[in-house]
Every structure is written in structure tokens, then in C-alpha cells.
């Protein structure tokens, strides 16, 4: 262990002693600040994908190599750190309230990005929020994740090319992939096509549900001349 890492751990322990944090899942104390809102044992219970997981090659859903539901989605392939459950779910919810990622989540994101198909990527883009929502929340949670991924892969973060032009609509209950896709179709626009033309884009978001949002972004990016669009999310529903 190097000196910086050692002093980080000591620092962590001191802060935790001064301000004890309670695990939002089990109520025990979180011994190390780097775990964020959940304790180490709740993190151990959380489903994080590994190379041994059987997943759909394109959309990353657990199961057979071709799930048969994702052909309509425009991106090249999508992967997530793990399932939207337990500590990952709580971390994603916390990220909507506070623009900060705990160290453990950062490490998981970078590990997933390095392990997956993203080595071809040349540019990181976050799924944008509509301006109105950005003003209410004060930050875009996808940008916080994208900053970590861009830093971890030493890639430029593009915060200007892709914008959300229509307000997010509430999905009607029971909508399938196609229904959701129709709802967000045309919601995104590339305003600087010169910056994405010929690039392999790594699109980043917090949660992957049906993939409709990522697909709508990918459509806009590909139309603007991007070569490929891979998607990385913190969690998948
Ligand atoms: Zn716990
Ligand atoms: Zn699939």
C-alpha cells in the first residue's frame, strides 16, 4: 500500500469516528466513508456483474447471449456495474440528492469501464438532463458518473454536444420497450456534430431501465456521424 492510500484510509477512519454514518439498508454503522450510504456487508450482498455473468451481448441483461428484446435499440452495446438493488440502488438514489460519488462506487465504475468493451471509446458523453430539471436539481447525476469514467479511462468528457430538447415525459405504466422508445424519440439533439463525427462515444447514465433513453441519445449521436455508441450505467433495473 502506498503512503497516499494509507493516509486516505486513516483519514477515512477519523472522519467516520467523528461523524458516524448509519447504513441506509441494515442500520449498522458504515465503518469506512468510501462505502458511502451502505456498509461493507451490504455491499457484499449487492449484485455486481463479473466476467462470469451470462448476459445479453448487446443490452447487458442477465440471461442468454441474445435476449431477443433489444434489437430495436440504437446503441452498439450497453453494460452496467450491477443490478439496481441493494447498495447500488441506494447509491444511485443518493446521487440524485448530492453531487458526489463515494470512492467505492468510483472504483466499481472504473473497473467495469476497463473490463468491458469500451477500450475503443474516444469520447465520454453523459445523458443530458432537460435544462429545467438541471436548474431545479442544480446538477446532472449522469455528469458526475461521466466525470469519474472519463478520468478513469483518460478520455475527454464532452458536456456540450448532446442536449435534451424536450421535457422528460412520465412514462405511462406498463409501457414496453417500443412504447418507451416512442416517448423519448427525438428528445435529444446533437448541437455540435463536428465534435462527435467519427468518434466512438461512451454514453454514461445512472440507471438503465428499458434502454429507451440511451437508445434515443445513441440515435442522435449516430445521426450526427458518431461511429459507435457504447453505454455504461451505474445500475440496471
Ligand atoms: Zn448495511
Ligand atoms: Zn438484449
Question: Could you characterize the architecture of this molecule?
Answer:
With 237 residues, this protein is of the alpha/beta class. 38% of the residues lie in helices and 17% in strands. It is built from nine helices and nine strands. The protein has helices spanning 3-18, 40-45, 86-95, 103-115, 131-137, 141-153, 177-184, 193-196, 212-223; strands at residues 21-22, 29-30, 77-83, 123-126, 157-158, 162-164, 188-190, 200-208, 228-236. The strands form three sheets. It has a five-stranded parallel β-sheet. A two-stranded antiparallel ribbon has the order 1-2. A hairpin with a 6-residue loop joins β1 (21-22) and β2 (29-30). The model has no long low-confidence stretch (mean pLDDT 90). It binds zinc ion (ZN) (2 copies).
Which percent bin holds the helix content? 25-40%
> Shape, please?
globular
Please describe the biggest sheet, giving its number of strands, its sense, and whether it closes into a barrel: 5 strands, parallel
Continuous helix count: 9
| Sheet with the most strands: spatial strand order | 3-9-8-4-5
Straight-line N-to-C gap: 36 Å
Instruction: Tell me which ligands are bound.
Output: zinc ion
The overall pLDDT, averaged over residues, is 90
**H/E series:** HEEHEHHEHHEEHEHEHE
What is the beta-strand fraction?
15-25%
Secondary structure class reads alpha/beta
Radius of gyration: 18 Å
Q: State the total count of DSSP E strands.
A: 9
Amino acid at each position: 500500500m502506498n503512503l497516499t492510500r494509507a493516509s486516505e484510509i486513516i483519514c477515512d477512519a477519523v472522519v467516520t469516528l467523528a461523524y458516524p454514518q448509519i447504513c441506509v439498508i441494515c442500520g449498522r454503522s458504515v465503518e469506512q466513508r468510501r462505502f458511502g450510504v451502505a456498509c461493507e456487508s451490504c455491499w457484499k450482498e449487492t449484485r455486481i456483474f463479473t466476467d462470469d455473468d451470462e448476459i445479453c451481448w448487446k443490452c447487458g441483461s442477465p440471461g442468454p447471449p441474445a435476449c431477443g428484446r433489444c434489437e430495436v435499440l440504437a446503441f452498439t452495446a450497453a453494460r452496467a456495474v450491477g443490478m439496481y438493488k441493494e447498495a447500488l440502488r441506494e447509491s444511485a438514489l443518493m446521487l440524485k440528492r448530492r453531487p458526489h460519488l463515494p470512492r467505492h462506487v468510483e472504483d466499481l465504475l472504473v473497473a467495469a469501464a476497463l473490463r468491458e468493451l469500451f477500450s475503443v471509446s474516444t469520447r465520454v458523453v453523459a445523458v443530458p438532463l432537460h435544462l429545467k430539471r438541471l436548474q431545479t436539481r442544480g446538477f446532472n447525476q449522469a455528469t458526475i458518473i461521466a466525470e469519474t469514467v472519463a478520468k478513469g479511462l483518460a478520455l475527454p468528457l464532452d458536456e456540450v454536444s448532446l442536449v435534451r430538447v424536450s421535457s422528460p415525459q412520465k412514462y405511462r405504466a406498463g409501457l414496453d420497450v417500443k412504447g418507451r422508445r416512442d416517448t423519448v424519440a427525438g428528445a435529444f439533439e446533437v448541437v455540435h456534430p463536428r465534435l462527435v463525427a467519427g468518434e466512438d462515444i461512451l454514453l454514461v447514465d445512472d440507471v438503465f431501465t428499458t434502454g429507451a433513453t440511451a437508445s434515443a441519445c445513441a440515435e442522435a449521436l449516430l445521426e450526427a456521424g458518431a461511429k459507435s455508441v457504447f453505454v455504461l450505467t451505474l445500475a440496471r433495473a
